[in-house]
Input
Amino acid sequence: MPGITLEQAETQLASWIAADQAVTKGQSYQVDTGDHKRSVTRADAVEIRKNIIYWNRMVERLSRRGIRVRGVVPV
Output
């Protein structure tokens, strides 16, 4: 079974950013996780931010296809 695609990760990131914007205004928001829908409220702000960080990292990894270069010195 293939892993998560960049498009799926970007969709999830956009959903969690929208949820953050909605609850910032004191509203509740429904996030479609694919398998089911979750309703989040202002009290879930920490969870929303954790998901934004997670999906942002996933988008970054998939954008560069998981390749990480460390210790490279420009010439």
About this structure: The two ends are 41 Å apart (CA to CA). The chain has a mean pLDDT of 81. The chain has one domain: 6-63.
